[in-house]
Amino acid sequence: MRKVLFGGSFDILHGNHLDILKIAKTFGDYLVVAIANDGRIRGKKHPALPIFEAEERKKLIEHLDMVDEAYVIYDKPENNVIFKALKLIQPDVYVRTEEVNPIDEKAERKLCKELGIEMKIIPRFSHPNFKSSSKIIKYILENFKLEDMNKLIKKDE
Q1: Minimal CA–CA distance to 38: which of 7, 74, 71?
Q2: Are residues 126 and 97 in contact, defined by beta-carbon separation less than 8 angstroms?
Q3: Helix or strand holding residue 39 (H, E)
Q4: Is the pLDDT of residue 154 over 90?
Q5: In this structure, which long-range contacts are made by residues 51-55, counting pairs with CB atoms below 8 Å and at least 24 apart in sequence?
Q6: What is the pTM of this model?
Q7: pLDDT higher than 70, residue 77
Q8: Among 9, 2, 6, residue whose Cα is nearest residue 86
Q9: How far apart are CA 32 and CA 89, in angstroms?
Q10: Distance linking the first and last C-alpha atoms of the chain
């Protein structure tokens, strides 16, 4: 069995997440997903994030057909959680997207070599109408006024 590791935040799960996870699964038989903890996301992206707490993001990821296991990786917010995940999970293949920090990529490549893990880099943008959690949040902020959102929320209650 060839175990594959892929990591990410997965806040506001969207179609591009699904596309990337499907691609990651093609590199092996068993896909393990490492999910960034809430502190890491707040420190890396914005203090108001994540939208969904780690355990809820994990629950969503675990229910995807292509995912065999999912873990929230806890470490100091300033640490790259993939380093810890690579050591704990010990996959045969680590898959990452190309847009991630090049400094991290170099360090990740070095650690993979030390641990005997094959590293694959895939494109992040799998389709022209690419969505990201950040783009979804930006769209909402630019296109909805607070009173519009309050009306929507009242309809849901």
Answers
A1: 74
A2: no
A3: helix 38-44
A4: no
A5: 51/11, 51/12, 51/133, 51/137, 52/11, 52/12
A6: 0.85
A7: no
A8: 6
A9: 8
A10: 47
Q: Strand 69-73 and strand 93-97: pairing? A: unpaired
| Residue 89 token pair | 């999970």
Per-residue pLDDT for 135 more than 80? no
Q: Domains of the chain by range and CATH?
A: 3-130 (3.40.50.620)
Q: What number of CA atoms fall less than 13 Å from residue 63's CA on the CB side?
A: 7
Instruction: Kindly write down the DSSP assignment for every residue of 51-97, as one continuous string.
Output: SS-HHHHHHHHHTSTT-SEEEEEP--TTS-HHHHHHHHH--SEEEEE
pLDDT digit string (tens) for 107-130?
A: 899 999 999 999 999 886 655 566
Mean pLDDT throughout 11-39? 92
* pLDDT mean over 66-89: 90
> What pLDDT is attached to residue 50?
87
Q: Which letter does DSSP use for residue 138 in this model? A: H
